[in-house]
Design goal:
82 residues, mainly alpha, 2 domains, 4 helices
Length: 82
């Protein structure tokens, strides 16, 4: 059985189409916005590796970068600020 693969731009296109169809259907602007945001985020995932490489060159370690923390530590930081 063959499996189809999609790149990030194609996935972003699907999210954009879904948001357009939801708009035609009259769905909530919040739902539509969520799909549009997912499209933008997905489209830019490829460039994330460049940010990580730049941080590594700056001698940062994982523990210094907020979004690399385990979920509990990340949420703890958000709620306590430490």
């Amino acid at each position: 059985m063959a499996t189809a693969t999609m790149n990030n731009a194609q996935i972003a296109g699907v999210f954009e189409k879904i948001s357009g169809l939801l708009g035609l259907k009259g769905e909530s602007v919040f739902t539509i916005s969520a799909y549009q945001r997912a499209a933008r985020t997905t489209e830019h995932l490829d460039s994330m590796r460049f940010g990580v490489a730049g941080v590594r060159r700056g001698w940062c370690q994982e523990r210094d970068i907020l979004n690399t923390l385990p979920v509990r530590e990340f949420l703890s930081f958000l709620y306590r600020g430490t």
